[in-house]
Design a protein that fits this description.
The protein is of the alpha+beta class. The protein is built from 15 helices and 10 strands.
Length: 432
């Protein structure tokens, strides 16, 4: 059977977009080379050493924003690099400002974030193409003062769009703890993430705000669906395109986009300590439950996820209702959740394929270990898929999907140097 005209048109559109993306990448690579070769002045410091060398700039901006008292007399300004050896870290530094007022001596703690070091021209071009710096500066600059968005308050949020340089100075949340990606989020902490997701998603539910964030457009969806390789490329491509298009349908809300446990801070018993999201480079608009699916798939061990999944979805759904969301029942949420899991399955390999430009030669500690942990968790997600439901929902062939996912899991086990048996998969799938 010959392909129809619509199929040929879609192929031409993907080819044109592919060429345009290549040209944009080339242009960004040239711009990055110029920026790194001549280091033009940005109007703000581009790294911790530049901030330390010009304390007056930062102090004046912090006073103007209300982060420091106007009458503060600065006695010390200390900038120290922070966690330079961890994977998925941009350039970050602690900033401690010591000062005195009529009330006596004080100290304020801040965190400064800058663009990642350029590991390669291509990696930085991808960073620019995805507008990572623009999105992060937008979130911190426009949304961090909103109590519905659990994130440190930013007092400075500057970005230079052509080069991707940025300078964000935010409150340092000293009374919080981090949970390692490898350990995964324990069940008793997962509810905090559900509450924070629900509060943010409900606040921006189907609203024309945070306009610097967009849903993924159709041409980009078509292009992403064309990136798969191997015998199952067409099947997976069609599946991902269908689920991406569903993600882009209303109601849309503000998404963190990279909501894994490594981008979360958890409260301690200290007064005022609270949960917070950090690192907003992947922020976008789409189905709110994408953040939930991403978190539960990547940051929660399989047995913890299975035992608590439905209760956590209940908690998230109730949080949406409490935040004023109407017309979004629990069954629809669960259907959306299962579709968003497919997008997570596609996303999980991106850091290792090229899209994670904040991983450089200087901060790759633990990256291989994270790959192993994420692979095991994603294998378990695939084993739990209700393929009959998924095939019916996306217009796919269930038998072909079964074989494709079995091959996918076999390849995943091979990357771990192990063999694995696919778990039993009933025709009815999981229960709500």
């Amino acid at each position: 059977m010959n392909a129809g005209p619509c199929h040929h048109l879609a192929m031409i559109q993907r080819l044109v977009l592919h060429v345009l993306l290549k040209l944009l990448l080339a242009a960004f690579m040239v711009g990055t080379w110029i920026d790194q070769r001549w280091l033009p002045k940005m109007g703000f410091p581009r790294n911790p050493s530049a901030m330390a060398a010009d304390p007056d700039w930062c102090i004046a901006r912090l006073k103007a924003a209300g982060a420091l008292p106007e009458d503060a007399e600065i006695t010390a300004f200390k900038v120290e690099p922070y966690k330079t050896n961890e994977a998925f870290r941009s350039l970050v530094a602690t900033v401690d400002v010591h000062f005195t007022t009529a009330s006596g001596p004080e100290i304020r703690h801040f965190l400064a974030k800058f663009a990642p070091r350029v590991n390669s021209l291509r990696d930085h071009a991808v960073y620019l193409l995805q507008e990572n710096a623009v999105k992060e500066a937008g979130v911190y600059g426009e949304l961090s003062a909103d109590p519905a968005v659990a994130t440190p308050r930013a007092w400075i949020a500057e970005v230079h769009k052509p080069s991707g340089n940025l300078c964000i100075v935010m409150d340092r949340l000293v009374d919080t703890v981090e949970i390692s990606e490898r350990d995964g989020c324990p069940a008793q902490k997962c509810g905090l993430a559900m509450d924070a997701f629900a509060a943010m998603h409900a606040r921006y539910w189907n609203k024309d705000e945070a306009t610097f964030l967009k849903v993924v457009p159709d041409p980009v969806i078509d292009y992403m669906g064309s990136l798969f390789e191997g015998d199952d490329a067409e099947l997976f491509g069609d599946l991902i395109r269908a689920t991406w298009r569903h993600d882009s349908l209303p109601p849309a809300t503000v998404l963190h986009g990279d909501a894994r446990v490594g981008n979360m801070l958890f409260p301690t018993d200290a007064p005022g300590s609270a949960f917070a999201f950090i690192d907003w480079q992947a922020a976008r608009k789409g189905k709110g439950v994408f953040d939930v699916a991403y978190f539960l798939a990547l940051s929660v061990d399989a047995d913890v996820r299975k035992d608590n999944e439905q209760a956590l979805l209940d908690r998230y759904h109730q949080g949406l209702i409490d935040g004023g969301v109407t017309g979004y029942d629990r069954e629809t949420l669960f259907d959306d959740y299962r579709l968003e899991q497919m997008l997570v399955l596609g996303f999980v390999t991106l850091p290792f394929m090229s899209a994670e430009s904040s991983t450089t030669r200087d901060n790759t500690t633990g990256l291989a270990d994270l790959g192993e942990v994420w692979t095991r968790r994603m294998i378990a997600v695939v084993d739990d898929l209700d393929l009959l439901w998924l095939a019916d929902r996306t217009g796919s062939d269930a038998a072909k999907l079964k074989l494709a996912f079995e091959r996918s899991n076999a390849r995943a086990w091979a990357t771990l140097g192990e063999t694995g048996e696919a778990g039993p998969r009933g025709e009815s799938g999981r229960t709500r």
